[in-house]
Design brief:
The chain is α/β, with parallel strands linked by helices. The protein contains six helices and six strands; from the N terminus they run E-E-E-H-E-H-H-E-H-H-E-H. The strands form two sheets. A four-stranded mixed sheet has the order 3-2-1-4, sandwiched between helices. Strands 5-6 form a two-stranded parallel ribbon. A hairpin with a 5-residue loop joins strand 2 and strand 3. Helix 4 packs across helix 5. The radius of gyration is 16 Å and the shape is globular.
């Protein structure tokens, strides 16, 4: 049986929906974070199909909510432990490489694919990032097109532009 907690809260970029689990660690592990209620519900259904028995409890995590608020309000890098409950090996590899992009910096889809060991798979890397289950934590907003355009973002292109600007301004402060 997979016991998960789910909640939502208002943030500087709208309502954020999240799912988390307590494992054998002191900190909660986030497994889903997004700003679309539809994708949040779809992800719950996906987990229900993938795992034989999933139980969701309505329970918030002060640690997760405060970490996200500090990232958005206080311009701190976001460091929340995570676990992937979905995704192919390829997607997980792309997500892990994306997690390595430092606060305030960007990388291209091509660079992410190459860093993950898939030299010619930049389009597939973009698709993998479109399936990223933990926006902000895996900072796919930091991945842009080789042309310099910001590209698509599951949280919306306006949010991506806002996050890039937020990080650019506040990384200069450090």
């Amino acid at each position: 049986m997979l016991n998960l907690n789910k909640s939502s809260f208002k943030s500087g970029i709208g309502t954020l929906y999240y799912i988390w689990i307590h494992d054998n660690t002191d900190l909660p592990l986030i497994v889903y974070l997004g700003n679309s209620e539809k994708y949040y519900k779809d992800y719950q259904q996906t987990l229900g199909l993938k795992y034989s028995e999933v139980v969701f409890s309505d329970r918030n995590s002060t640690f997760i909510e405060e970490a996200i608020k500090n990232y958005l309000d206080n311009k701190e890098s976001l460091n929340i432990p995570y676990r992937f409950l979905t995704g192919s090996d390829f997607e997980k590899n792309i997500w892990k490489k994306t997690a390595e992009i430092p606060f305030g910096q960007v990388s291209t889809y091509k660079e992410v694919a190459e860093n993950a060991g898939y030299r010619a798979a930049w389009r597939a890397a973009g698709s993998a990032l479109g399936n990223n289950p933990v926006m902000l934590v895996i900072p796919c907003h930091r991945v842009i097109k080789s042309s310099g355009e910001i590209g698509r973002y599951g949280g919306g292109e306006k949010i991506k532009a806002l996050l890039l600007e937020h990080e650019a301004v506040h990384s200069a402060d450090k």
